[in-house]
Amino acid sequence: NVKSEQTLTIEVMDYVQEKSLLVGDRNFGTFQMAKEYTENKTEVLFRLTKNVAKYLSEGADLSRNIDKEVVWRPTHDVSKKHGYRRDEEVRGRLIVGHFNHKGKDVQVSLFTTLDVGNPEEILALYRKRWAFEEDLKILKQRLKLRHIQAETKESVQVEIFCRLLAFNITRGMI
User: Fold this and answer.
1) 46 — phi, psi (to 5°)?
2) Contact 47/25 with Cβ under 8 angstroms?
């Protein structure tokens, strides 16, 4: 029984301290994730898909830098699928900006409930998530974590620990 990252993230919400910050990529940039976490008094910073950014920007030119207060309401489809009322909302900021990644200009559209920081600081914060994700990708490849056989939380922890231990021992011998 495979669960999505979003479902697993919502399930662990009870363990997240108030005023924490959930930073997520495009898969997390949904009304459901924003609503669930802000109701738990957690700040969010999500990268958005182009469609979601266009919806939140109300048709603004997304090729330009933007720092705009927005009110995110569920679309008709999201309301129907997840049971939200159409008047429910999450208030935050839409930030569209650029940063350099390996010599290439990368444009990102972000939604955040953080009310502090200028757009450059918010982009830098998101950029840290991006760097962490790249490191995690390399670690997952080296530890062959694409398919974990364990089924319980404790077994998953043991399997990851054992693979990490084996990796470090092998690497130490080289």
Assistant:
1) -120, 140
2) yes
Q: Residue 26's closest CA among 122, 130, 136, 132?
A: 130
Sequence-distant (6+) residues with CB within 8 A of 139 are 145
pLDDT at 52: 94
Q: Report yes or no: 26 and 49 within 8 Å, Cβ to Cβ.
A: yes
| Token reading at 82 | 């997840």
Provide the pLDDT confidence category of residue 2 given band limits of 50, 70 and 90: low
Q: Identify which of 86, 83, 89, 59 has the alpha carbon closest to the alpha carbon of residue 75.
A: 86
16-29 per-residue burial string, b: 16 or more CB within 10 A, e: under 16 = eeeeeebbbeeebb
**Cα–Cα dist 96/50, whole Å:** 11
Query: SS3 string of 98-145?
Result: EEEECCEEEEEEEEECCCCCCHHHHHHHHHHHHHHHHHHHHHHHHCCC
Proportion of the chain in helix, strand, coil states, percent, rounded to 5: 45, 20, 30
Instruction: Specify the pLDDT at position 1.
Output: 62
